[in-house]
Amino acid sequence: MLKQIEGSHAVARVVSECRPNVISAYPITPQTHIVEELATIVGNGELEAEFVNVESEFSAASVVLGASAAGARAYTATTSQGLLLMSEVIYCIAGMRLPIVLTCANRAISAPLSIWNDQQDSMAVRDAGWIQLHAEDNQEAADLHIQAFKIAEKTFLPTMVCMDGFILTHAFEPVDIPEQKEVDDFLPPFKPKHIVDPRWPRGIGLFADPRFYMETRYILHRALEKSEETIKEVSSEFAKVFGRDSGGFIKTYKLKEADVAIVSMGSVVGTIKDMIDQLEEEGKKVGLLQICCYRPFPRHEVHKALEDKMNIVVLEKCISLGRGGILASDVRWSFPRAEKKDRNISSFVAGLGGRNISVDDLRYMVEKVEKEPAEFEFLGLKKELIAERDM
Amino acid sequence: MMEQSKYLEGVEKKDLFAHGHRACGGCGQALAARLVHDAAGENTIACVATGCLEVFSSPYPDPAWRIPFLHSLFENPAAVASGVEAAYKALGKGPVNIIAQGGDGSTADIGFQCISGMFERGHNVLYVCYDNEAYMNTGVQRSSFTPYGARTTTTPTGNKTRKKNLPMIAADHGIPYVATATVDDFRDVQKKVKKALAIEGPKYIHILAPCPLGWGHPGELTVEVCRLAKDTGLFPVFEIVNGKVTNVRRIPVKLPVEEYLKVQGRFKHLFKKGVPTEEVAVIQEIANQNIERFNL
Ligand SMILES: Cc1ncc(C[n+]2csc(CCOP(=O)(O)OP(=O)(O)O)c2C)c(N)n1
Ligand code: SF4
Ligand SMILES: [Mg+2]
Question: What would the mean pLDDT of B274-286 be, rounded to a whole number?
């Protein structure tokens, strides 16, 4: 049913329809509305679940770890400092192959403190062994959660759904919230593999000496690579059942004919599309490649989609300090060495700590790379705030 | 000394935590873990912290456990156990005994917040602390349970602070059952575990578990060292039921702390040519305060 609803509430609604058995979370802006709404849903008896009000994100992650290891479908949500505080458990959850679903309401990281949006937080745990899906708008954020539980439970890989803080979490948009029955039909009950249960006394979380550790990492890496199929499968099944093209690996917009290809992910792709339309009217051919699944990284899809593009721009809301663009590195790596020659892949960082990314910023970016490629640049920087010695 | 058969009378022995672990000889913690789980029985889930116990009992591919064992991190067994309990409730499974457990470092320091959270939220979980008064697994560094005067690798001149009193802190969370015990008294440990598991809600049992390696006493003296810890008043044994201290173990014949200190290498520096230094007097004062406070 189409409903005018806040992004956070839409997510809470669909998460509830996925019938998690255990929910545990700790409040942090801009994730709060998701968990408040879930607490309400559990509180008024709409969802039969244990809602564990913990004393930190570290414990929230540990609670869902324990719950999942005991056979429950488990869910948590966080952002920014909360995700960083969880990070030790985040790695552990993946290593233990627990199919937990987590919403990351993407937000900047301290210091300085900022509650506003960028994607540094989920980037900080990109190597932990989680599947990471990025939503463009609230409909997709809602849809991705339904897919996330299914993907996680098929692959035994924890899955993080990333949605831009405030820009999505706090935006009111019409969102189609599926009927409970539709979700039930799409998402079968969780069938765990190994659980802690006195009927099958076995250990979970044993330690591995050098004879065994490396293989566990290899297997986890391969599992992520192989999850590609499941992610695509679930997304096309979703499209069939719900009639919406949400998720999957990548999406494109006016890319085929484009002279300049922009690669990005998250809500900013909406602004990018507007800019592409504007430029089109002016006779310029710019296209978009949207990364829907950041981990596993859709290397082959990216390569295929951009094969004939010689002028590529990667725009991202995160930075590897001392190195540069992170997504840009992934995109550059997607091309075989021989194909990198003569191909310009420019890297722009923008929107850190909630700085607005305007159509004008994007136009500037495109005009710039039309003239010459940019190795790495901050977009929308206020030079007047930076002292000469810091330039 | 009691003869062995009498010592073991009434002690549950199920070997649920037994075969092939790699603890040092005379390890108090290995003995304690065995007593705890044999008392709890098969219908038990052990959520274990990183530390000596985890390392010596859970190497892949042959762990020493015959009950389900769950290890995640150093500081989170109380939160993990909370999640297991929540899952059991949500799935309508159980009843089952859930025992979260860790060393003193895990319990008193890095995992303190998780434990406080578990107590405060009222999970039906028993938390057992195996107190060997230092971070043994990483090579005998000081924890906040390291007693005054003890030498560790990070307090080379002797620890300058007093031991954190976690049993009282636990009780002040308003949890229904808290107990202390020492690993030499098998029946007492098992009685307390059974009693705790029969009570609904969060429970805390604090077991003194000497570590021959870190304390510097011969492995065969582990039991004797426990007795000395009790009889000097340095380790009070009691229960706190619904906030009231009860069943305090009275000391039959009170001993000076020197008797306890002298058998352990970690206190050796407190005696110069056999003569006790000022620190020994401080430790005696700590024992006296315990004796008075708990009427030992
Ligand atoms: C976050 C984190 N910090 C530090 C460590 C290293 N570490 C592992 S076990 C341990 C000491 C354990 O001490 P305690 O809890 O007293 O158990 P014991 O080994 O003495 O039985 C430490 C410091 C770790 N595993 N994780
Ligand atoms: S170092 Fe101490 S606690 Fe660890 S196994 Fe040896 S005796 Fe036990
Ligand atoms: Mg210790």
Answer: 97
Query: Per-residue confidence at B3, pLDDT binned at 50, 70, 90?
Result: low
Evaluate whether residue A391 is within a structural domain. no
The closest CB to that of B86, out of A48, A67, A198, belongs to A67
Beta carbons of A74 and B59 less than 8 Å apart: no
Decide if pLDDT at A129 tops 60.
yes
Q: Which CATH number characterizes residue A61's domain?
A: 3.40.50.970
Sign of CA dihedral B16, B57, A91, A94: negative
**Where among A185, A217, A242 does a domain terminate?**
A242
B72 touches chain A (CB under 8 A): yes
CATH classification of the domain holding A274: 3.40.50.920
Same domain? For A119 and A48 the reply is yes
- pLDDT band for position B20 (cuts 50, 70, 90): confident
Closest chain B C-alpha to A16 CA, distance in angstroms: 14
A55-69 pLDDT, tens digit per residue, is: 999 999 999 999 999
Domains, chain B, with CATH or none? 12-294 (3.40.50.970)
Indicate yes or no: CB of A206 within 8 angstroms of CB of B61. Answer: yes
Set of chain B residues whose Cβ sits within 8 Å of the Cβ of A50: 86-87, 89-90
Q: What's the domain count of chain A?
A: 2
CB B167 near ligand 1, within 6 Å: no
Chain A residue with minimum CA distance to B42 = A198
**Pair (A121, A211) in one structural domain:** yes
**B132 pocket-lining for ligand 1 (C-beta < 6 Å):** yes
Q: Whose CA is nearest to atom 25 of ligand 1?
A: B74
Domain co-membership, A255 together with A189:
no
The answer to whether residues A148 and A296 belong to one domain is no
ipTM above 0.90, yes or no: yes
The residues, ordered by sequence, that sit 6+ positions from B28 with a Cβ below 8 Å of its Cβ are B130, B132, B183, B208, B209, B210, B211, B222, B226
Examine the domain organization and report whether A143 and A196 are in the same domain: yes
Question: Which two tokens mark A210?
Answer: 């050098």
| pLDDT at residue B19 is higher than 80 | no
Mutate to test the interface with A, among B22, B44, B71, B72 (most CBs of A within 10 A): B72
A221 and A258 share a domain? no
pTM of the prediction? 0.97
A188/A323 same-domain check:
no
Q: Please indicate, yes or no, if residue A311 is contained in any of the structural domains.
A: yes
Considering the domain architecture, whether residues A226 and A310 belong to the same structural domain is answered as no
Q: Residue A123: give the domain boundaries.
A: 2-242
Taking the CA of residue B102 as reference, the ligand 1 atom at the shortest distance is 15
Task: Give a yes or no: residue A312 inside a domain.
Answer: yes
Q: Which of A242, A269, A297 is the last residue of a domain?
A: A242
Average of pLDDT values for B171-187?
A: 98
